Amino acid sequence: MRPVTADTQPEVAQRGVAQHGVARPGAPDVPWLTDEQQEHWRALMALLMTLPPALDAQIRRDGGLNTFEYHVLAALSEARARTLVLSDLAELARGSLSRLSHAVTRLERAGWVERRSCTEGGGRRTEARLTPAGLEKLEQVAPGHVREVRRLVVDVLAPEQLAALADAARAVRAGPLAGAGEGCRAVDC
Q1: What pTM, to 2 d.p., does this model score?
Q2: Per the record, a Pfam family (predicted)?
Q3: Mean pLDDT calculated for residue range 144-151
Q4: CATH match for 61-160 among 3.40.630.10, 1.10.10.10, 3.10.129.10, 1.20.1310.10
Q5: CA dist 100 to 2, 104, 186, Å?
């Protein structure tokens, strides 16, 4: 077995820097994580690397959708007249306009979403509207998704842990990530 060195395990070497406060060339002013902070960060990263793919697998299996497409359908289902301006929909679904455009094209082909231009209010916008078939698709997939969310997260945590997780998520989102994916204007057309 090879010994653990900076060459074979850079993350172990970095932890050594954090533990011993040794400055690394090129990064002398980096406030390295403490052992406890590293443990918490790694737990969060492990969750972020395993939970989304598990939820995505269920949505793909039950509905032939990916998680982003599911969130597009869900956001439209909650909107007034089941219609949103694409820029607002992109924010709500947490994706770029380009990614949303590709998803809406696929959802349009399946008959679950309709896209239309709107010039009301003096500007030109493109909107997406959830079709009755799209609502039916969402209603088909949602029960399995809710069961999976419960199985993987809600039922695993005590109520106070779930509340603390939500509080922590909101605090992180309110930091440097604030404004990313927020907001929704009312549909005028």
Answers
A1: 0.74
A2: HTH_34
A3: 97
A4: 1.10.10.10
A5: 47, 6, 19
